[in-house]
Amino acid sequence: MPDPITIKREDGTRINYYLHLKQQNRHTEDLLVILQGSDCNSVSRIKTIEKLKTIYPAVDALTVEKYGIDETLPYDPDPERIDCPAEYMKKDNPYQRVTDLDKVITTIISCYNYKRIILIGGSEGSLVANILSSKVTYIKAAILFGGGGRFFIDDVIHSMKYSSSSPEELKKNIEGFTQFADYILKNDPFEISMSNHGYLWWKTMLSTDQLELLLSIETPVLFVQGGNDKSASPEKASEMMELIKNAKKKNITYLFYPGYDHSLNLSAADNSADFVLNDIRRWLSKELLLKQNYKKD
């Protein structure tokens, strides 16, 4: 892992990022930007990032920390960890991440003259990639996985099917969350901590229409969904992709893998993720080689 680099936000706080150079003291023409999911962890401690770098191994890679997080935060997979930074809880949301990413990317483009920026993001990182691709023109391709359906509430309800012990408990949990979502959407900011997220994160996630974002993007997009995803709804993802197909959006490709989980088996002990990663590499090569007239070294 390279040393962190820091630039300042307009509010004076620091954005920490890591530029993974393919060759020491030399920058490639393309840059792969890897976006983590919704967990309260330093991006420097996410092990699956090494696997994601292999989809375009010949280029530099960029990872960016979330608001209030740096490499000193120890890794903890618990979604209710008690040491999640207060600044993160208050400020973190997909649009804050997009603002930070845009600042970092435009800065390093000006410094190192990267020609093409490719995004890959999973779970919340998928949504962040969607938003960024809809707002800027320098993204040349975006790869999204585990992003679920059009509305986040459907993905949360889908995940409850696996965390509820009985149909009665499931019904109760759905009713409770639906009331919570309605309260968030109708009220001004208030103090809340649920699953290591605050009001701003929940308000943003619950109010975002992912279909609307995808329809606004002209960049080539690969949307990948696992059929064994217990966090985001495969059914709602497929429904959304059908709407995109009906809208005749030619720039969006959908790949569905029935036996794969939320992370496309990237965390599995076996090598099953390699099958999907190879398909992603083929898609990316096609987009860059054929549509961008890209030549191999």
Describe this structure in words.
The chain is α/β, with parallel strands linked by helices and about 300 residues long. The chain has a single domain (about 5-150, about 210-290), classed as Alpha/Beta hydrolase fold, catalytic domain (Rossmann fold). The protein is about 40% helix and about 15% strand. The chain is built from ten helices and eight strands. It has helices spanning about 50, 85-90, 95-110, 125-135, 150-165, 165-185, 200-205, 210-215, 235-245, 275-290, and strands at about 5-10, 15-20, 30-35, 60-65, 115-120, 140-145, 220-225, 250-255. The chain has an eight-stranded mixed sheet with strand order 1-2-4-3-5-6-7-8, with helices on both faces. Helix 3 (about 95-110) crosses helix 4, helix 4 packs parallel to helix 8 (about 210-215) and helix 5 (about 150-165) packs antiparallel against helix 6. About 40% of the residues are buried. The model is unreliable at about 290-295 (pLDDT under 50).
